[in-house]
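user: can you give me the structure for this one chain? tokens are fine.
assistant: on it. calling the predictor now.
[tool input]
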Amino acid sequence: MKRIALWALAASVGAFALAQTPAATADASLGTDEVVARNAEARGGADAWRKVTSMVWVGHVDSPNAPAPDLPFELALKRPDRTRFETTAANQMIVHVFDGKDGWKVRPSGGGGPDVRPYTSNEVKFARDEQVIDGPLLDHAAKGISVALEGTDKVEGRDAYRLLLRLPSGATRHVWVDAQNFLDVKYDREARGPSGRPATIEVMYRDFREVDGVRIPFVIESGAVGMDKKDRLVIDNVTLNPPLDSFTFANPVSQGRRASVKIGADASPASGAPVRPVR
């Protein structure tokens, strides 16, 4: 998620490069399977992604709802659906953990100790629906996800294929795949707003870079459709296949354990280089 200035420079260079390349028109002859296959190839290939069993992102969050700018975060991911997200604001840690079955939220409390609450049923459902390592398109049939090509749309001025996904839970998603580079650039999901009313959350993927043979977006923006201000996750470092034990995804304060677990600092990527430049 001095770093904002560097990100702005990179974004400007990328925008200039795109301006020099005419946007491709979507190929109407392509079907669902062809779009999904080209997306897998653009992201590094299905075989490369199948070798990724765990992942750690380290970066910062820029959110209009955050108490401070550039909040540092660490996100640990492990197949099939384990996640751990940590961020710190004003020396107070916030943790969200899901072990594949249950989840917990840890936040500061007025009494000084951590306030630990279990995930709600909707939060558990959402965590189970997410494909935490490689996304919903790769090996989608094996995951019980059906995919159908609905048509094409313009996404920020570029043609993109719109895919409808039906998850095993019954939930639906849309993924937009760029017609020129075949990277997934947009994603939406249904959620509940602060008032409890249904809302559509829109996620944009930007600044794809290659890390050990797979391509990962280093900037992820999300927010309700129609809102000008979005939450932005900026990734500074990615580590593939770090050793993550079961305690990383366990109840953060069970059995006297501390809320914080070191999930990224001591792990080293297989290649010895956590981040490689865009190719």
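assistant: here you go. Helices lie at 3-20, 32-42, 46-50, 121-129. The chain has one domain: 25-256.
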